Amino acid sequence: PAPHPLAGRHALVTSGPTHEPIDPVRYLANRSSGRQGHAIAAALADLGARVTLVTGPVGIADPPGVTVRRVETARQMLDACQSALPADVAVFAAAVADWRVEHESAGKIKKQSGVAPPVLSLTPNPDILATIAAAGPLRPRLVIGFAAETSDLMQNAQAKLKRKNADWIVANDVSPDTGIMGGAENAVSIVSADGIETWPRLAKDDVARRLAQRIVATLHGALA
Ligand code: C5P
Q1: Residue 30 designated active-site
Q2: Which residues sit with their C-beta closer than 6 Å to ligand 1?
Q3: pTM for this model (two decimals)
Q4: ipTM, 2 decimals?
């Protein structure tokens, strides 16, 4: 096979968590490490793609050969993704916070004895995947999402495929006993209109390489 089968293609990848501010020193976040998303960006670059990686705050190194856009919030992540279009393929591996604090405090919220603790009111964040998948002529040819679930994995993944207008959903069980969230391995199934393909438990780097190969096959098939 050609050493750089994705030469001339642009891939957009999101990775990591988002941080949603409460006040200047506090935020809401989640346990995403960014490992799977970063590995996917690296694997696509290895195959010759020009890659834009839009990442939330993570403690891992930038993948080599990739343009990295660092963001904190979901809204910033959406803006960065929209600015990166057009793309041939988009992989949404970020664990975007579903909600943000409705009224961010301009100053640090003070703890005062005898005063009740603050109550945080949340409001939904934009769905980045669904927004990009609905981008009309700017919609990437291949839109890939993740479904990290702790129950009813396949049903949720299939529902997500339709609701978000994705082409594939990479479904993974992130129950605490799997060690997947933040770990080095992943066990995924690829859910698409063609059915469900279940892969063995693999290193996240190998999941990334296999996903990148599947992207090559599909983009080339679609253009043949
Ligand atoms: O609905 P749920 O969060 O489970 O969907 C997961 C998929 O949707 C992932 O691919 C994630 O990156 C993407 N997503 C997104 N923007 C959101 C929420 C999820 O892009 N606000």
Answers
A1: yes
A2: 14, 74, 92, 94, 96, 125-129, 145-147, 160
A3: 0.95
A4: 0.97
